[in-house]
From TrEMBL:
Pfam families: LRR_8. Gene3D superfamilies: Ribonuclease Inhibitor. Keywords: Glycoprotein, Leucine-rich repeat, Repeat, Signal. It comes from the Eukaryota. The keyword tRNA processing does not apply. InterPro entries: Cys-rich_flank_reg_C, Leu-rich_rpt, Leu-rich_rpt_typical-subtyp, LRR_dom_sf, LRR_TM_domain-containing. This is Uncharacterized protein. It comes from Owenia fusiformis (Polychaete worm). One of its GO terms (cellular component) is plasma membrane. The lineage of its organism: Eukaryota, Metazoa, Spiralia, Lophotrochozoa, Annelida.
Length: 411
């Protein structure tokens, strides 16, 4: 979810501008066709079935949206009559690589945002304006790899999204010129670990967001830039988090590796992640949490470890999480909890909500403390107690926590 925020923000912003255009009609652009919408320097001619630019687009246009049409080619100098153009959306057309020419984007000295997604390209087009800072190539590249010089010369790029393509590998020097890159996404490409060269991102010293969600990575990405703030490797084939894979990542704020096959996390693997606020390991295969599994996560506020196979939790497993506010541990195999795990002296001073349902709880005297904690700690609640069902002992089997008092937990 986190890895999609930037693209969603862009889409929502575009939709907002479209809505403004719709409400204002053709105000200020009397020569445009009626199906186009215009507001000063913004022009939207999407969903018109056109294959050529309509007449009447103002020369001072800064944003032009012609997506969801029937363009199959972009002739040389097609946009050169609009030198003020900054944002161009030609996504969801029928443009092929054969329909792009060296001068397709000539005469655009101010173009910063280009969306070419959902077309039919074999490779990244040549001759893209060197002024680009945002480039979207979602579900448009019909190739299993990219030319090493695909982004050569695009030194101002800050956001690059090549998600939902068929890429199986990335060349080692693909991002050689992108020293200003702040966000890179290659989600849902079938890239296995051998297809991602070690150190491909290391030189990107401004990179804050990296998302490789839904690829086929079997190992954590090594040699990451220390500037990363958000890392998304969810929906891969990871099986283990080694001890040094995130060493030195002091600026990392969110880490998503949910929906993997992670069975183990090396003790101390997160020791340098003191800036992390959200940790998501939902739907993995974790079975054990040790005293050092979460070592270093002193500022995590929300911990997601739902839908694992956790059955063994050491007494001090959550002790490093001094700022934890919400614990999500539903759908696991937890039957017992040591009192110190959640209720030790000062162990989790900020914990307000625990989500613990769908575990096979053994509701005897050893778990009475947890039920008492709800009564004596005003700031603390157990979410959905009607879904917390006792499995043992036999006299308690099938009873839900919303019907039980502390005195019901007996040995």
């Amino acid at each position: 979810m986190i890895a999609l925020i930037d693209k969603c923000t862009y889409i929502l912003g575009t939709l907002l501008v479209i809505c403004v255009g719709l409400s204002l009609g053709g105000q200020g652009c009397p020569n445009l066709p009626r199906d186009c919408y215009c507001d000063k320097t913004f022009v939207n001619c999407s969903r018109m079935g056109i294959s050529k630019l309509p007449a009447g687009i103002p020369r001072n246009t800064t944003t032009l949206i012609i997506n969801m049409n029937s363009f199959s080619e972009i002739p040389n100098n097609m946009f050169s009559a609009f030198p003020e153009l900054q944002q161009l959306d030609i996504s969801s057309n029928q443009i092929t690589s054969g329909g792009l020419y060296p001068g397709s984007f000539a005469g655009l000295p101010k173009l910063s945002n280009l969306d070419l997604g959902y077309n039919y390209l074999d490779q990244v087009p040549k001759g893209l304006p060197k002024t680009l800072t945002y480039l979207y190539l979602l579900q448009t590249l019909n190739s299993t790899t990219l030319a090493e010089d695909a982004f050569k010369g695009l030194k101002q790029l800050q956001h690059l999204d090549i998600s939902f393509n068929k890429l199986e590998s990335l060349p080692r020097n693909l991002l050689k010129d992108q020293s200003n890159l702040q966000l890179f996404r290659a989600d849902w490409n079938p890239i296995p670990t051998p297809g991602l060269p070690d150190g491909i991102f290391l030189h990107l010293t401004k990179l804050g967001d990296l998302s490789m969600r839904g690829c086929k990575l079997s190992k954590m990405i090594p040699m990451l830039p220390k500037t990363l703030q958000n890392l998304d490797v969810a929906f891969n084939q990871l099986t283990y988090v080694p001890v040094d894979c995130l060493a030195g990542m002091h600026q990392l704020q969110t880490l998503a590796f949910w929906n993997n096959s992670v069975t183990g996390i090396a003790d101390g693997a997160f020791r340098d992640l003191e800036s992390l606020t959200i940790f998501d390991a939902t739907s993995c295969a974790l079975t054990t949490l040790t005293d050092d599994t979460f070592k270093g996560l002193v500022n995590v506020k929300t911990l997601y470890i739902d839908e694992n196979k956790i059955s063994n939790i050491s007494a001090n497993a959550f002790a490093p999480l001094k700022n934890l506010d919400a614990l999500w541990m539903t759908i696991n195999s937890v039957a017992e909890l040591n009192m110190q795990t959640l209720n030790g002296t000062g162990i989790l001073p900020k914990l307000s909500t625990a989500y613990l349902w769908a575990n096979p709880w053994k509701c005897d005297c050893h778990l009475r403390w947890l039920r008492e904690m709800v009564d004596v700690t005003p700031r603390f609640t157990i979410d959905a107690p009607h879904l917390m069902i006792c499995h043992e002992p036999p006299a308690m089997k099938g009873k839900t926590w919303d019907t039980l008092k502390p005195s019901d937990f007996k040995c």
